[in-house]
Specification:
Elements: E1 3-13, H1 25-47, H2 50-67, H3 70-77, H4 85-94, H5 98-110, H6 112-136, H7 153-169, H8 171-190, H9 196-212, E2 221-228, E3 232-240
Antiparallel strand pairs: 1-3, 2-3
Helix pairs in contact: 1-9, 2-9, 4-8, 5-6, 6-7, 6-9, 7-8, 7-9, 8-9
């Protein structure tokens, strides 16, 4: 039985004079190899299948179509013309990343396998969003000096949460979280933070990664335990495989 420790959170070195030792290079290499073999490679294999390509293709087509309506939708929606201020506030909070971190931490503690799938989906969505927003450098509608409009990070985060939770817990959980994702899309447009096409592309992005990470965590044995000693305080996540 091998055990790989992937993540150490909130580690605080409390004492002085404790020598820190680097893990041997082969151990670091083993960590990355295990991460790829156990998680990333299966995610890519599951994601880039016929259904995954369909999600991406439909998302790209809808993004191109909605791009032609960007300016009209902005005129009609900005300034809370179509939704209330409470809705825009909800969207700003729900897609901000705080709720996804809270959900991830809760699931990892109480229901580790869905929690692992959820955390992986959110991380990959965030990484993809960050990369695309820097590459596209699209100006935001309300502030052209900020060139991170495409795709909408709040919308992508809301959709990956909804998709991942639906695969793990079904439509009783999925229906309200998808409703929250749609509200987040509308809020980002009404708040003049994103174009319509930004939110459409982000929805496809979140749905893709939420599905891609949903199928291959059933055999993992995840253990979470606190680290408490006179020298340190933290939380350890470990896998046995």
């Amino acid at each position: 039985m091998r055990r790989a420790h992937y993540l150490l959170l909130l580690f605080i070195q409390a004492g002085a004079g404790h020598a820190e030792t680097e893990p041997p290079p082969e151990t670091v290499s083993h960590y990355f190899t295990s991460l790829w073999d156990q998680h990333l490679e299966p995610t890519f294999e599951d994601g880039f299948d016929r259904t995954g390509y369909t999600i991406l293709a439909v998302g790209a087509a809808c993004t191109l179509v909605s791009n032609n309506q960007d300016h009209w939708v902005r005129r009609e929606w900005r300034g809370e013309q179509k939704v209330s201020r409470d809705v825009t506030r909800f969207g700003a909070v729900w897609g901000s990343g705080g709720p996804s971190l809270l959900i991830a931490g809760t699931l990892l503690y109480y229901d580790p396998q869905p929690g692992l799938a959820f955390s992986e989906a959110v991380a990959l969505t965030s990484l993809t969003h960050y990369s695309l927003s820097r590459l596209s450098s699209r100006p935001r509608p309300g502030n052209p000096l900020i060139r991170t409009s495409f795709p909408s990070g709040h919308t992508a985060n809301a959709w990956v949460m909804a998709t991942s939770l639906t695969y793990s817990y079904g439509w009783k959980v999925g229906a309200p979280t998808y409703a929250a994702a749609l509200i987040t899309m509308a809020a980002r447009i009404a708040d003049d933070r994103h174009w319509l096409s930004d939110t459409v592309a982000a929805a496809a992005l979140g749905a893709f990664w939420g599905r891609a990470t949903a199928f291959h965590h059933g055999q993992d044995k995840l253990r979470i335990q606190p680290i408490l000693s006179s020298a340190s305080l933290g939380m350890e996540l470990a896998y046995e495989f």
